[in-house]
Design brief:
Blueprint: E1 7-9, E2 12-14, E3 21-25, E4 32-37, H1 41-60, H2 63-79, H3 81-92, H4 96-114, H5 116-119, E5 123-129, E6 132-140, E7 143-147, H6 155-166, E8 170-174, H7 181-192, E9 200-202, H8 207-215, E10 219-225, H9 228-240, E11 244-248, E12 253-257, H10 263-275, E13 285-291, H11 294-308, H12 327-342, E14 346-349, E15 366-369, H13 376-379, E16 386-392, H14 395-402, E17 407-408, E18 410-414, H15 418-427, E19 432-435, E20 451-452, E21 455-456, H16 463-469, E22 471-479
Parallel strand pairs: 7-8, 7-10, 8-9, 10-11, 12-13, 12-18, 13-16, 15-16, 18-19
Antiparallel strand pairs: 1-2, 3-4, 5-6, 6-22, 11-21, 14-15, 17-20
The structure holds nicotinamide-adenine-dinucleotide.
Nicotinamide-adenine-dinucleotide binds near residues 151, 174, 225, 226 and 381.
Protein name: methylmalonate-semialdehyde dehydrogenase (CoA acylating)
GO molecular function: methylmalonate-semialdehyde dehydrogenase (acylating, NAD) activity
Keywords: NAD, Oxidoreductase
Length: about 475
């Protein structure tokens, strides 16, 4: 039997007790890395109690000391950058350079949080009447929770934990049951950085554990990142229990290629956007709309790239794309390829025939052309290495088709024309817009989230939004 994956409560490994378990794999080899508990409610209650007890002392610790913990944490993450990247590759499958970049994007958020004393400063307005002044300051909420998806085991927990705790809250992370291991190492390093025991706790589990957290009377706020139906469920349920919620959901990202785009750079960016991390990114390019003559060169060049893509274990230097997360997910992606064919799209390159290792959950990259907006491969999130190409005569028509999507996470235009870029930026319905950028992920000092069904809530992840989300404002009016 595989090893049980322990919770981490008050920085101690806590043996799980559950009636349902899942297996955690290395998706590149199929090797089982451990058994993860799905319904350990006792651990949820213990973690909430521990976080609640840690709150008084932590919220009373000076903001400068909390920020200094972030400086020390940043240094430790840098020192363990490669080790963390290897952990991500092992449990997720993405190639090592991708995993390294992921950890780097997480470190950025720690750097943002180290600046918390500037961000959390209050406001004062003297003289609102004779002898009367008003001041506003931010106070932490208490115990908050983060529920994260499988596809960024390091970065997404790091979107949440640093801003939440530097603001004085205590935290419970419920990582994805498919990639739960990296988060435990992130927590060990946090303790080493001087964050007291109990300030951050990791509880493993599946949907029942999530529901327990959403309804727990002590939990004040919920940060969620995952698929769209679950984001909606989390938003509605947590709000019904009176909690503050930010729920980042799924995506279907459109990329528009103009005839004047730089061909080489566009093909490079599209290849990495569509097939990088095996398409398992919320910012993955899923549909390309070729405008006018761009259709003449785009499909052929992308087909060549797909054919030459090296697929294999993420630790090998020459490999460009790793496996999918599970065999069942690979089968789901294959069903989308079959659906695309049935719906009449032209399968230009078939990833099912691509050379891939025999072990593990691999699938090669696929490319469709002649895709129509109403087809399921143009509308639904596949979350795999499948790129759909459409044609439109001009930019307004391309934007109109992209805006029919119910999602609005990110969208990119490839062009050398400032006017086209500006039109796109002003008319596309997406929260994160790229101009000649394949994955337009904002740096940590800006808010991260999509529009429409890609996001439920108000305040986004990271940037100053994160600090507003994790604090309450208190306004005091004084007459002396
Ligand atoms: P998922 O929705 O299956 O799981 C996310 C989390 O929710 C996990 O911790 C899981 O345990 C929990 N969960 C799953 N089903 C649940 C249920 N019925 N009730 C309560 N909790 C439940 O998502 P995933 O497959 O791990 O991640 C991929 C998805 O996340 C994709 O749709 C992707 O677009 C999205 N994503 C979005 C962003 C963004 O910024 N918008 C970023 C990364 C990933």
């Amino acid at each position: 039997m595989a090893k049980h994956i322990a919770h981490s409560i008050a920085s101690e490994a806590v043996e799980p007790h559950a009636s349902e378990w899942d297996q955690v794999y290395n998706p590149a080899t199929g090797e089982v890395l451990g058994d993860v508990p799905l319904d350990d409610f006792g651990a949820v209650d213990q973690a909430v109690k521990t976080a609640a007890e840690a709150f008084a002392e932590w919220s009373g610790t000076s903001i400068l000391e909390r920020a200094r913990c972030m400086f020390r944490y940043r240094d430790l993450l840098e020192r363990h950058h490669q080790e963390l990247a290897e952990m991500v590759t092992r449990e997720h499958g993405k190639i090592l350079s991708d995993a390294y970049n992921e950890v780097g994007r997480g470190i950025e958020v720690v750097e943002l949080a180290a600046g918390a004393p500037s961000i959390l400063k209050g406001e004062i307005l003297p003289g609102v009447a004779t002898g009367v002044e008003v001041f506003m300051l931010r106070v932490p909420l208490g115990v908050v929770t983060g529920i994260t998806p499988f596809n960024f085991p390091a970065m997404i927990p790091l979107w949440m934990i640093p801003p939440a705790i530097v603001s004085g809250n205590t935290f419970i992370l419920k990582p994805s049951e498919r990639t739960p291991l990296t988060s435990l190492r992130l927590l060990e390093l946090l303790t080493e950085a001087g964050v007291p025991k109990g300030v951050v706790n990791v509880v493993h589990g599946g949907r029942l554990v999530v529901d327990r957290l959403l309804s727990h009377p002590v939990v004040r706020a919920v940060s969620f990142v995952g698929s769209e139906p679950v984001a909606k469920h989390v938003y509605q349920t947590a709000a019904a229990y009176g909690k503050r919620v930010q729920a980042l959901g799924g995506a279907k990202n459109f990329h528009v290629v103009m005839p004047d785009a730089n061909r080489g750079r566009t093909i490079d960016a599209l290849t990495s956007s569509a097939f990088g991390s095996a398409g398992e990114r919320c910012l993955a390019g899923a549909v390309v709309i070729a405008v006018g003559e761009a259709g003449d060169w785009l499909t052929e060049a992308m087909a060549q790239r797909a054919e030459s893509l090296a697929v294999g274990e993420g630790t090998a230097a020459s490999v460009e794309m790793g496996p999918l997360i599970r065999a069942a997910h690979r089968d789901r992606v294959v069903r989308y390829i079959e659906r695309g064919q049935r719906e009449g799209a032209r399968l230009v390159y078939d990833g099912r025939r691509h050379p891939v290792p025999a072990q593990g959950f691999f699938l090669g990259p696929s490319l469709f052309d002649d895709v129509h907006p109403e087809m399921s491969i143009a509308q639904e999130e596949i979350f795999g290495p499948v790129l759909s190409v459409m044609r439109q005569p001009n930019l307004p028509a391309a934007v109109e088709v992209a805006n029919r999507s119910r999602f609005g996470n990110t969208a990119t235009i490839y062009t050398q024309s400032g006017a086209a870029a500006q039109y796109f930026r002003d008319h596309i319905e997406a929260g994160m817009v790229g101009v000649n950028i394949g994955v337009a992920a904002p740096v940590a000092w800006f808010p991260f989230a999509g529009w429409k069904d890609s996001f439920y809530g108000d305040l986004h992840a990271t940037g100053t939004d994160a600090f507003l989300f994790y604090t309450e404002r208190r306004v005091t009016t004084t007459r002396w």
